[in-house]
Write a structure and sequence with these properties.
Length: about 80
């Protein structure tokens, strides 16, 4: 299991466009990927669940990858967050 924490910098928070890209990338990774924000968590491969977290600018998310491609996957997801969120 690999984990990465990230603080959302996008002025609109975790909104539809970057969340869609995140989900698309997560679906390509052979691992279970969970995103947590506060007491809520969601399957990163499900757009509506991810959007349901309601993460605003300055909110911290924790991304957890567990599976065959967890190490490579968490790196790719971290790079996506840095570039898009």
């Amino acid at each position: 299991m690999k984990e990465f924490k990230f603080v959302i910098r996008d002025p609109d928070g975790l909104h539809a466009r970057p969340a869609g890209g995140f989900v698309k990338l997560a679906q390509q990774i052979d691992a279970e990927i969970t995103v947590s924000a506060g007491a809520k968590s969601a399957d990163a491969k499900k757009l509506f669940r991810l959007m349901g977290l309601g993460v605003q600018t300055g909110g911290e998310i924790t991304i957890i990858a567990d599976g065959n491609e967890e190490a490579e996957g968490i790196i790719r997801l971290a790079e996506f967050c840095e570039a898009n969120l």
